Amino acid sequence: MTYELDPNSELPPHLLQLFLRAAPVQLKLVIDTCSRRDAASARLAAHKFKGGLYAAGASALAESVEALRGTLAKADWDLVGRQLQAIRDDFASLTVEIERQLRASQP
Amino acid sequence: MIQRAHPTATRAPIRVVVIDDDEFEREYLVDLLRTAGFNVSSLPSVFGVTNHLVQEHVQVVVLDVMMPTIRGDKLAALLRKSAALPNLRVVLVSSMSEAEVAPLMAQAGVEAFVAKANVRADLATAIDNLVSGARR
Question: What pLDDT was estimated at residue B9?
Fold first, then answer.
């Protein structure tokens, strides 16, 4: 499945590479803190993850992460689990799209 | 974006520093502002910031709010009090909401905020407007 980026969100290759290096680490921190049910740390990790998603042109996914932050504030862990799975799925699609852009940018 | 209104802009000589602990977001802002014609440097943390601002004659600081060593609004308040930096202007950027950032801006004496969701569209204009307002 292809992730649809924001209009006019094209990044140069060095930023695509940086995103592919940094964002999975940030998502893993969100997943790890959620699995520990550490809501405060998970909200902070999600906040950092969200900022990079906006920069990458993935505003819809960033909004999903903000919704997760709201759920974490209520400690609704069942809903956290479902939202986190959807975020992981969308992030996988986003990664595929960013990798495709990176390949297309190379001669 | 929360900002005072200044209608005109002169872009060419504006010297900007981006301070953000996140490498991807920092480099993204640098690329965005260089493409828009600003003279941009960057720092990954607040260490050495005052010396950098003075030596590079920086006019505008773009500060992330959520940084590990000191929050951007707290750093902004310190910079605003520095006698060595009387004309420095500050733009806060964050993925926090405007409602969350507004009281931080008021406390720190910061004139402009751009949400990370709107950085691509609004940051260059915010900087232009800050500097053109300061020149009056």
Answer: 46
